[in-house]
Amino acid sequence: MTEDDSQRRHLGRGLAALFGDESEDYANLDKVRLSKSVPIDHIQPNLHQPRRHFDDESLSDLVASIRQQGVIQPIVVRRVGDTPNAYEIVAGERRWRAAQRARLHEVPVTVKELSDMEALEIALVENIHREDLSPLEEADGYRRLMEEFGHTQEVLAKALGKSRSHIANMTRLLTLPDEVKRMIEDGSLSAGHARALIGAADPVALAKLVVRKGLNVRQTEKLAQADKPVAAPARRAPAAKDPNTAALENDLSTLLGMSVEIKQKRDGGTLSIRYENLEQLDDVLQRLTQSGGPGPDFEEEIVEI
Predict the structure, then answer these.
(1) Cα 235 to chain center, whole Å?
(2) What phi, psi does 216 have (nearest 5°)?
(3) Is the pLDDT assigned to residue 213 strictly greater than 80?
(4) What is the CA 278 to chain-centroid distance, rounded?
(5) In angstroms, rounded to a whole number, what is the distance separating the alpha carbons of residues 273 and 192?
(6) pLDDT tens digits, one per residue of 222-241
(7) 20 to 30 A Cα–Cα from 12, which one of 135, 183, 205, 230?
């Protein structure tokens, strides 16, 4: 069994714990599951709840439904330490909030024995799988499942019924500047627009321009592409110099007391001598002529000094 298969089976058990598994033996299930009604004020929200925003309009619709039919699906809770009759929500905070607004005195709950990490994992999966999270809440849920529980993008994609590219694209939203993230949260910028801005030189300025002009995603993509920094062309590394040529350069430099460079070409080459003043140049010419070198016309023959 591969590591991804093992992780997927583990995440699948988390989903089964949340939604129930009809293939389980119900006699055994009753030993770990306790469903009952408890006073609504005995329940407290989870401080690590992945959802940060609860839409008032959708919550109002749920309140109306609960007033008419009650809470049909039990809220998943766990006991709070050793405190009797105190419970913390693992999954179902929207139903609990709506039940409060509907002025219910009791709500049905399913009590589970869960560690802090198990409770957090189920809360993350429940929110991603069942609720309409904001793009950034969804992205952060994926991030936490990968970073805190070691799940890969492939495992999450198969377990949650999402494509791997969807999970990758959503998590990339978290790399955007905070000002752009705020525009996503308040709905002025869609996730599609925001993804197009990733990697732009100035995503904040582009985001403001997109909102001001009401650009669509395709137009935003073209705008962002033009704003991406152009990479400087890679400088070609100089070719390694022939060892014999390098040795000759070193010998001449030592002899003359000046920097000497030899550049070879297919049909010859150049000899360059770097001097700091005319006295040094005159000294070089004297050495060459005194050693039986070229005659008076030598200066005209020097290719580069």
Answers:
(1) 30
(2) -85, 180
(3) yes
(4) 62
(5) 62
(6) 888 887 665 556 566 566 67
(7) 135
> How far is CA 104 from its chain centroid?
42
* Separation CA 119–CA 138 (nearest Å): 17
Task: Please give the model's pTM, rounded to 2 decimal places.
Answer: 0.54
3-state secondary structure of 20: coil
The pLDDT value recorded for residue 236 is 64
> b/e map of 7-43 (b: 16 or more CB within 10 Å)?
bbeebeebbebbbeeeeeeeeeeeeebeeeebebebb
For residues 127-142, one letter each, b for 16 or more C-beta atoms within 10 angstroms of the residue's C-beta and e for the rest, the string is: bbbebebbbbbbbbbb
Q: Is 3.90.1530.30 the CATH number for 3-167? A: yes
106/131 Cα distance (integer angstroms): 23
Strand partners, 91: 76
Mean pLDDT, rounded, of the chain: 76
CB 44 within 8 A of CB 86: yes
In whole angstroms, what is the distance from residue 70 CA to residue 255 CA? 101
Phi, psi for 300 (deg, rounded to 5): -75, -20
Q: Which of 3, 24, 57, 93 is catalytic?
A: 93
SS3 103: coil
Residue type (1 letter), 226: A
Query: 300 an active-site residue?
Result: no
Supply the CATH classification number for the domain 176-227: 1.10.10.2830
